[in-house]
Amino acid sequence: xxxxxxASPSGGGGNRGLHSGIIQWLVDNFCICxxxxxxxxxxxxxxxxxxxxxxxxxxxxATFGKLVRLVFPDLGTRRxxxxxxxxxxxxxxxxxxxxxxxAQYCYLLGEKRHHSGDLVAFEKSTNYSSIIQxxxxxxxxxPVKTDPVGSPLSEFRRCPFWEQELAKKYSxxxxxxxxxxxxxxxxxxxxxxxxxxxxxWKSLQQDTVMLMSLPDVxxxxxCYDIQLYKGIEDILLHDFLEDVSIQYLKSxxxxxxxxxxxxxxxxxxxxxxxxxSKLKEVTVFVKRLRRKTYLSNMAKTMRMVLKxxxxxxxxxxxxxxxxxxxxxxxxxxxxxxxxxxKDDELEKNSEMKCLSSLISLLGTSTDLSVFLNCLxxxxxxFVFQPSRSKEEFIKLAASFQLRWNxxxxxxxxxxxxxxxxxFGSWHLFHLLLLEYVIHILQSCxxxxxxxxxxxxxxxMLTDDQSLVQP
Length: 470
Fold this sequence. Notes:
Helix content is 70%, strand content 5%. Strand 2 (76-80) and strand 3 (87-95) form a beta hairpin. A 3-stranded antiparallel beta sheet has the order 1-3-2. It has helices at residues 14-29, 40-51, 61-71, 102-115, 119-125, 128-133, 160-169, 172-203, 206-212, 215-237, 246-266, 272-306, 309-322, 326-335, 343-347, 350-361, 368-384, 390-418, 423-468, and strands spanning 30-39, 76-80, 87-95.
């Protein structure tokens, strides 16, 4: 092993070798330290990420906890935090400052404090401020500079397993230097985004702010915001079917939330109309990214199901059986609508046809895009094409979505009662189909509203030009 590279906790040689590797990993990275505590889930998360590609050799949380107590037999347990955000902590240990994972631990600790919902209470309960003040009480701890929302500014989330493997393969010293430099480069970019937002809005004079707050000026800059957010979205996650890591998706979600927070902080004290306009656009941006990261996460899991021929075969067989059950016949009658209404003829059984076409694809392809393209085609036929106006589209979209949700829920109920073997596969498929329909319909509504905003600005410009012409 290259010098300076920590041992991976996923050792070989059966359970004994595996447990020995974890014990050594705990000894190398943690130490007894009175007055300090480490969140249990955070400790296990670092262990799991350290295992990396050796995921098959991971131990479960219960076994990991037993090994922790084997290394630190007098360890206590405390439940810290406020109601709704309390977490169990190992009391009496801390991570070593010399640990390869120290920076990652500090980042994760700050991130979890940020998402706890009660930063002040959580900070007091974990005695985090005393850690900064009592520097030197424990030789293996040092303060971490944090921003106002609680996440470290000086550290960037690392991928320790990859760095270890590359350090073994190439020069350890060079790899460590390169990884440090590149992470600093990434951190600088992220930090500069926040600085750019703050510096622009805080530099505006009062008369400029009042001009920007006028409705037609707000409308113009709204068009620019749309282009900005689309550009950021394309860079971060152009297509949710891209094969990206779970950690990357977490980073995208965190960045979008921070972006919104930076903007809101920068706009504090500005006129209400301007704040409302900016808040609306950035909220759409955050929600769209959240949908895409959620879909990307589910797509990664569903791909594994589609590659398992046995699971797909059982799922397809069970779905064919369920579609002919009496329980679903009841739901079909409930969804049939008013027979006297001609519009219902178009909608009648559209969701059943859609689901049947998707079931027929099971076993024929492992490419997830084939299923989603099929679903898109059905939405095009049953919702988009029949719509002659925005109001009619919203009505048809809401109707289809209600029927679609009702049908998928009925199938889930039947799966729970009679087909336990395929319930897990169906649950993933169900969530993906549900969220994809929501994403497509919601994105269409958002794009139409954006086009209307652009159109209204063009109309204003046309009217203004006609007024100045002789």
